[in-house]
Amino acid sequence: MIYELAIIGGGPAGISAGIYAARKKLKTVLIADSFGGQSIVSDDIQNWVGTKSISGQELSKNLESHLKEYAGDIVDIKEGEKVELISGNKVDGFEIKTKNNLYKAKTVLVTTGSHRRRLQAKNADVLEHRGITYCATCDGPLYTGRDVMVIGGGNAGFETASQLLAYAKSVTLLHKNGKFKADEITVKKVSSHPNFKLISNAETKEILGEKFVTGLRYIDIHTGEEKEVSTNGIFVEIGAEPTTGFVSELVKLNDYKSIVVDHQTQRTSAEGVWAAGDCTDGLYHQNNIASGDAIKALEDIYIYIRTK
Asked: Going along 71-211, which residue ranges are E strands?
């Protein structure tokens, strides 16, 4: 069959669009390898509007149940499928290819978000999951009573440090710059903890250890001096990259591989294709913003389809 709309992604943006598509009776297929987006690993989300505090896992379940409550026979949910390629045009429609299936739709909304940026340092690939981790919620308790490090000076880095301080012996945060991207109140709160140490203006060059992480080598950007720090574990929080490879030949991307959109409508350079959330070139990336942008896109898609 040919769907009126294909939504790609199961985070806050994709789910929000799916709910609106169901309510507007647009025959839709929603394809997602999983629900919840990046926030699923967060222990405590305090800025999801309408909820004082919620875990990423609970938010994911709430989003999924809300979608399924309205989906009925309007939105076909294809969970556990990852889109490999989207091709086509506004005239002939679009083909969405996953590993085992091919879907066809008149319009497409891309809400695939972003994925964590990997640490580019010597031995980082070798020691991943052997002392290098990208999820404090998943792996933090394994480092109870140990000395650990966090790489990254944004909100995610400081929030990870705060989480780890609950059970680690000490937490050292290493940041490449002297100025932090994290909120001042968060920096102040974490920095006041007696077991927290900060190393700024430091560029990570090599992860030390053979079978497991034993330390880290970095360069002091101001002096050029090379230094070593011993640690039992390294938690990486250095940002994310948009998940857009499967549409790189279909829509215009910027230098950061984010999808370029018209921020009034969320339309991309390809007619019939919209995008919303962290996969776009939007200035700010948060759950609430992703959800709002997806709803904006859905409103425009509805008008587009119904007035053709």
From this structure: 75-79, 83-89, 93-98, 102-110, 114-116, 132-133, 147-151, 170-174, 196-199, 202-208
Place of tokens 């944004």: 154
The answer to whether 235 touches 133, Cβ cutoff 8 Å, is yes
- What's CA 41's distance to the chain center, in Å? 10
Whole-angstrom distance, CA of residue 107 vs CA of residue 275: 11
Residues 80-90 pLDDT 10s = 999 999 999 99
Give the three-state DSSP class for 120: coil
According to CATH, the topology of domain 132-236 is FAD/NAD(P)-binding domain (3.50.50)
List the chain domain ranges.
2-116+240-306, 132-236
For 247-261, the pLDDT digits (tens) are: 999 999 999 999 999
CA distances from 199 to 73, 172, 215 (A): 55, 7, 14
| Same CATH fold assignment for domains 2-116+240-306 and 132-236 | yes
Q: For residues 111 and 13, what is the distance between their CA atoms, to the nearest angstrom?
A: 6
Average pLDDT over residues 41-55: 82
CATH number for the segment(s) 2-116+240-306? 3.50.50.60
- Residue 31 and residue 96 in contact, taking contact as beta carbons nearer than 8 Å: yes
What the block records as the tokens of 200 is 């700024």
HSE at residue 190, side-chain half, CA atoms within 13 A, is: 28
pLDDT at position 117: 86
